[in-house]
Design brief:
This protein has 360 residues and is mainly beta. The chain contains 2 helices and 30 strands. The strands form 8 sheets. Strands 3-2-1-30 form a 4-stranded antiparallel beta sheet, with no helix packed on it. The chain has a 4-stranded antiparallel beta sheet with strand order 4-5-6-7, with no helix packed on it.
Length: 360
């Protein structure tokens, strides 16, 4: 298990370290400011905090000394004249995802934003450029739209560790896109998915993956927690299969995590549904599959089973070895060291949790 966890919350950046079988607070930064993503670049140990100042806009900070000091970086920005749609100016409303470019590109970083723009840096984050091929994709003007937010948003970026020019992104609401050439061109990967909210359920785009992740041990295996169920692909997104639990809790939700060694093993954090985004029956649980989604088991030991209003956001569940951690919208932070069979409370008093990440 990696011993440090970075947490982005509604009121700041937080880091815990696991020492002597106890989680200790080691950093608290940006007090009172929403942190949409807390991210660590595993290649060089740099910590990042994407801030959402509301009226003052989006800010981006990095730390090269594990949070002792922070440097503000110019955040990704849309060039003058770009429009989301006719008459609506494009500007960075939210930073929703970060990923590094892999060892082949040691200074490359990716950022996903609302309103649907993907940005790339080739100098470690000092400057950012909009990926124009995605922004100019012919489906964007009429086939992308907002889900929980007013505009489309890129919330998931997956870079293939074996081929750093191969990139998957997920857009709410548009779907999954793949690039095989470092972002020069994009292929839609929505076959097999459903979108019950669309007039045309077989539309090319308009799907709502809530998060997209790849299995660390087999990069052809992709998982997504979707607005309309849980999906898995074993062929790099060419075909998606629905693998949720009919009549059970593992269906609607936002977060998903995949085992580091077993591509058939994954965890989700269920909620009632899109119109009632709280724990099912007031009982918080995490569901685990060990067989690629054929069956699911609800894990409840140590989690509140009465009067729980908790929801787990898309970036707020993480796995490292046999350890899992997740944070909720009501400020609860839970930890398991046995694959979710048992849970312990780290804190009940955090702000709303936006993201969690295990780091060295």
């Amino acid at each position: 298990m990696k011993s440090t966890v970075l947490i982005g919350t509604r009121k700041g950046f937080i880091a815990y370290e696991y020492k002597n079988e106890t989680w200790e607070l080691i950093n608290s930064s940006f007090h009172g400011i929403p942190v949409s993503i807390a991210f660590a670049d595993e290649r060089n140990g740099t910590w990042w905090a994407a801030l959402d100042h509301g009226h003052w806009g989006v800010k981006l900070h990095r730390s090269k000394d594990r949070g002792k000091s922070w440097e503000e970086i110019v955040a990704p920005a849309y060039t003058e004249g770009l429009e989301i749609k006719p008459g609506v100016k494009a500007s960075t409303k939210y930073i929703w995802a970060m990923a590094h470019g892999g060892k082949d590109y040691p200074n490359r970083l990716w950022i996903g934003t609302d309103p649907g723009g993907l940005f790339k840096s080739e100098d470690g984050g000092d400057t950012w450029q909009l990926n124009e091929s995605l922004w100019n994709h012919p489906t964007r003007p009429n086939g992308w739209f907002g889900g929980g937010r007013d505009n489309p948003g890129i919330h998931s970026i997956v870079v293939d560790p074996d081929d750093h020019d191969r990139i998957f992104i997920a857009i709410s609401c548009a779907g999954v896109f793949e690039s095989k050439d470092g972002g020069e061109s994009w292929i839609i990967r929505n076959k097999g998915m459903k979108a019950e909210f669309l007039p045309n359920p077989d539309a090319e785009t308009g799907y709502d993956p809530h998060i997209l992740v790849a299995a660390p041990s087999n990069h052809e295996v992709l998982w997504q927690q979707n607005h309309c169920g849980i999906y898995r692909s074993v062929d790099g997104g060419h075909q998606w299969d629905e693998v949720d639990q009919k009549g059970g809790p593992a269906y609607f939700g936002f977060a998903i995590a995949v085992d580091e060694k077993n591509p058939d093993s994954a965890w989700v954090a269920p909620a009632i549904g899109d119109e009632n985004r709280i724990a099912i029956d007031g009982a918080l649980c995490i569901c685990r599959t060990e067989d690629g989604g054929k069956t699911w088991k609800a894990l409840r030991n140590g989690l509140p089973q009465e009067n729980s209003y908790d929801l787990v956001y898309r970036h707020a569940l993480a796995v490292s070895g046999n350890a899992l951690i997740f944070g909720t919208t009501t400020g609860n932070l839970f930890f398991s060291n046995n694959r979710g069979d048992d849970w312990k409370v780290i804190s009940n008093y955090l702000p709303m949790v936006h993201s969690v990440q295990f780091v060295d």
